[in-house]
């Protein structure tokens, strides 16, 4: 009852997309090699932890190691998930799938 009319142009573009998908099949991302992803993650997380440790040492230096790590690990994980890993994977994406 509340259907909006579809313009013929939009209907044609939908048909063209459906035809292209039917011919080529669904696109599946290439498999990432887990060993290479591990290496890339290690290369990203080591400098992140070192730099965060050096930057927070004046403030957190007197605390016990488990307490310092309770601050550093979530900060490093957030940096890896939202900043570092996406950039590394974009940069080395072709290498990761070879």
Total strand segments: 0
Strand content: under 5%
Q: Distance between termini?
A: 52 Å
**In sequence order, what are the helices and strands, one letter per element?**
HHHH
**What overall form do the CA principal axes indicate?**
elongated
User: Kindly state the mean pLDDT as a whole number?
Assistant: 84
State the share of residues found in helices, binned by percent.
over 70%
The radius of gyration computed from the alpha-carbon positions, rounded to a whole number of angstroms, is 23 Å
Structural class: mainly alpha
Report the sheet with the most strands, covering strand number, pairing sense and barrel closure: none
Uncertain spans, ≥5 residues at pLDDT below 50? none
Number of helical stretches of at least 4 residues: 4
Structure summary:
With 98 residues, the chain is an all-alpha fold. It is built from 4 helices and no strands. Helix 2 crosses helix 3.
């Amino acid at each position: 009852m509340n259907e909006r009319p579809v313009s013929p142009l939009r209907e044609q573009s939908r048909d063209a997309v459906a035809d292209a998908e039917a011919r080529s099949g669904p696109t599946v991302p290439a498999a990432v090699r887990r060993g290479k992803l591990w290496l890339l993650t290690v290369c990203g997380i080591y400098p992140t932890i070192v730099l965060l440790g050096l930057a927070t040492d004046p403030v957190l230096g007197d605390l016990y190691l488990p307490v310092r790590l309770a601050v550093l690990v979530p900060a490093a994980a957030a940096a890896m998930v939202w900043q570092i890993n996406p950039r590394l994977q974009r940069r080395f994406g072709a290498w990761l799938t070879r």
